[in-house]
Structures are given as C-alpha cells and as structure tokens.
Design brief:
The protein is built from 14 helices and no strands. With about 270 residues, it is mainly alpha-helical. It has one domain: MetI-like (MetI-like fold). It is globular and about 70 Å long. It is a multi-pass membrane protein.
C-alpha cells in the first residue's frame, strides 16, 4: 500500500508541470503571473484562437507543417543512414573497422556547439543557410553516433546463420541488409525514430542559427517570437501554442511507446 501511495505521489509531481501548462493556456493574461492558483477563474478560449492565428503573418498550420517536415526528414535520414552504418560495423569485415568504430563512439562526447561554427561556415558557403537542408542533410550522413551504437548492439545479437543462408541463395550485402537484417532490427529503428523526432522537434538553438525568414519558422521558433511580435506580453496565447506544439510529440510517443523498451532492452531475436 505504501509503495502504491509513493508511486502515485511521484506520478502527481511528474504530471504537475503538464497540468499547469494546460491550465495556464486557458487563463486570462492577468492571472498567468498574478495568480498562483492552478485552475483559472474562467476559461479564456481566445488564447487558442490567437495562437491558431500564428505569428508574423504565418499561421500555426504553416508552422506545424514546417516542424513536421524537418522532424520527418530527420527521422528518415537517421533511420536509413545509421542503420546502414551500423550494419557495416556489426556484420561486415573491412580494414580499420575497430579504430573507425572507436573514433565514431568518441564523437558522442564531442559537444554539439564545438562543431556548430564549422558546420555553419560550410552550409553558408554552399548557400544553404535559411533553408531546411542544414537541419536535415546531416541526418542522412550517419552523424548521430549514439543511434549507430544502439543499432550496432542490436544487430550483433542477430544470428549470422540468417545471412549465411541468404548468401548461399545468392543475396549480396545490400539485399541481405534490406530483406533480412532491417526487418529484424525494427525495435531499434523505432527507438531511433522516437528519439530523433523528439530531439529534432525540440531543437531550438540549431533552428535559430539557420532559419531567418518567418515563413520558414517552426513551432519552436514561433514560441520565442510570439511574445516579441506583440507590444504586450501575451502569455496566454504563448502557452496555448506550447500545448499545440506538445501534441505531436505526445501522439508520436503514444503511437510507438510499446516498441521503446523493447528496442532499448532487446539484444537478439525473440521467439
């Protein structure tokens, strides 16, 4: 009984920020700061009406489409490139495989800000600044070493007899990868997709560096500019837009949550 009560208390503490966000999105502007009550005195639905109008002349639907385009491209790039790199490290034999894998793992400890300036210079010289390419293109080059390592550990647990049988039937490395290894690696790939989607959706700093035009803004950038676009602090609509920005992440996670633990814990084929 005490264990259940403790777990319930922890659940309440963890869910309180979400409840506060939902309640604040429906509060009148004067109550957001002046009142400490969780529930609003009356429901201010106009906050969502204002939020749906967007910022800087760009509707929230355009902002949502921009965010989905970047996050979807990042998910596709990471799943494809990281699985190919992981297959090479886990299943193929080539020269300097060990040192290259160790070097890749070492890049996990490299801060993102340390490579941001060189990357910006490269993309600026290629004329890709203020486009979505700097946010999507690196994902197709297997730059996320964490996901490569995650998929490598999963693939190492797959029986090699499957590939040997496919090789006898005339399958080459690419056909073995796409028809045999890739379907069996689904839990790890879905885990990669979930984390990539969440991290990309919430990535404010990188989007702030590369995107200048309001019509190219994502919901994350719009949250920053929402207050700046008004001469007064529109906290209610800003929190309403925060709820709108949170919904795709929640829906994406709920849709694939059953694969998350399986992808992180599995290390082989289960019968």
């Amino acid at each position: 009984m005490a264990l259940h009560a403790g777990a319930l208390a922890v659940l309440v503490v963890m869910l309180y920020p979400l409840a506060w966000l939902l309640a604040t999105s429906l509060k009148p502007a004067k109550e957001v700061i002046a009142s400490l009550d969780l529930l609003p005195s009356h429901l201010e639905w106009s906050n969502y009406t204002t939020a749906l109008d967007g910022v800087n002349g760009v509707s929230v639907w355009q902002l949502l489409a921009n965010s989905l385009l970047i996050a979807g491209g990042a998910v596709l790039g990471n799943v494809l490139s990281c699985s190919l790199a992981a297959y090479a490290f886990a299943r193929l034999r080539f020269r300097f495989r060990g040192p290259l894998f160790a070097f890749m793992i070492a890049t996990i400890m490299l801060p993102h800000h340390a490579v941001l300036i060189p990357q910006y210079i490269i993309f600026n010289q290629l004329g890709m600044v203020n486009t979505y390419w700097p946010l999507i293109l690196p994902k197709f080059l297997a730059t996320e070493a964490f996901f490569v390592f995650l998929i490598v550990q999963f693939m190492r647990g797959l029986p090699r007899e499957l590939e040997e049988a496919a090789r006898i039937d005339g399958c080459g490395p690419f056909r073995s990868f796409f028809q045999i290894i890739l379907p069996l690696t689904r839990p790890a790939l879905i885990t990669t997709a979930i984390f990539t989607f969440i991290w990309t959706w919430n990535d404010f700093f990188t989007q702030l560096i590369y995107l200048f035009s309001p019509e190219k803004f994502t919901l994350t950038l719009a949250l920053r500019s929402f207050v700046d676009a008004s001469s007064q602090s529109a906290f209610g609509p800003m929190f309403a837009m925060s709820v709108i920005a949170l919904l795709p992440i929640v829906l994406f996670f709920l849709a694939f949550q059953r694969f998350l633990v399986e992808g992180m814990a599995s290390s082989g084929v289960k019968g």
